[in-house]
Design goal:
- The complex is a heterodimer of chains A (115) and B (112).
- Chain A is mainly β and 115 residues long.
- Chain A has strands at residues 5-7, 10-13, 19-24, 31-38, 42-50, 53-56, 65-69, 75-79, 88-95, 105-106, 110-114.
- Chain B has no helices and eleven strands.
- Classes of the chains: A mainly beta (115), B mainly beta (112).
């Protein structure tokens, strides 16, 4: 596609439920990143994929969070047993090396509200 | 750990005025990225700086990276209402291609 696509754009869930957030990167982009943006915390890195492997998962806040990427394209971020503190905007970005730089292009995000 | 400090946190300027936003790191950066975000939208890439002393311009926005590659400034000339939004600086503290760390952002309002 022309840009990074994320779905759903908004998600309201009850505490304790599992949620899946989807990211469709720009076609041909090998790197994919998940970030979380919450009030007072700014933008936090969650996980980074190069192809289908995740060399850096250091930002995942707990074992309730997991992500996978298949076919070097679409990625899914799963949050199990959601808690109220998981409420945030989840942003996905993708990039490809161009002349030694890795400009990250972001999707519009998924706004998650845990009630 | 690596942190980026942005200043000011928020800014209100009159249309037509110039303004500068700063981004400072405690460590040398491999790359410095400026993004703009409007409420409910993702981050829009503005500019990337890699070399010490580098300066880039796009329309009325100029970004600079100091020689030590630890401080960057974003300057907007003759601000317009369309410039309003949140400006974020992001940086790669390690090799290129890894995740970015971000400053907390500067909220810009432009009054007409």
């Amino acid at each position: 596609g022309a840009g990074v696509s994320q779905s759903p754009s908004n998600k309201v869930t009850e505490k304790g439920k599992d949620v899946e957030l989807r990211c469709d990167p720009i076609s041909g982009h090998t790197a994919l990143y998940w970030y979380r943006q919450s009030l007072g915390q700014g933008l936090e890195f969650l996980i980074y994929f190069q192809g289908n492997s995740a060399p850096d998962k250091s930002g995942l806040p707990s074992d309730r969070f997991s992500a996978e990427r298949t076919g070097g394209s679409v990625s899914t971020l799963t949050i199990q047993r959601t808690q109220q503190e998981d409420s945030a905007v989840y942003l996905c970005a993708s990039s490809i090396p161009t002349s030694g730089s890795y400009i990250q292009y972001f999707g519009a995000g998924t706004r998650l509200s845990v009630l | 750990s690596q942190e980026l400090e942005q200043s000011p946190q928020s800014l209100i300027v009159q249309e037509g005025k110039n303004l500068t936003i700063n981004c400072t790191s405690s460590k040398t950066l491999y790359g410095l990225y400026w993004y703009k975000q409007k409420y409910g939208e993702g981050l829009i890439f503005l500019m990337m700086l890699q070399k010490g002393g580098e300066e880039k311009s796009h329309e009325k926005i100029t970004a600079k990276l100091d020689e030590k590659k630890q401080q960057s400034s974003l300057h907007i000339t003759a601000s317009q209402p369309s410039h309003a939004g949140i400006y974020l600086c992001g940086a790669t503290p390690r090799q290129a291609g890894t995740a970015l760390i971000f400053g907390k952002g500067t909220t810009l309002s432009v009054s007409s």
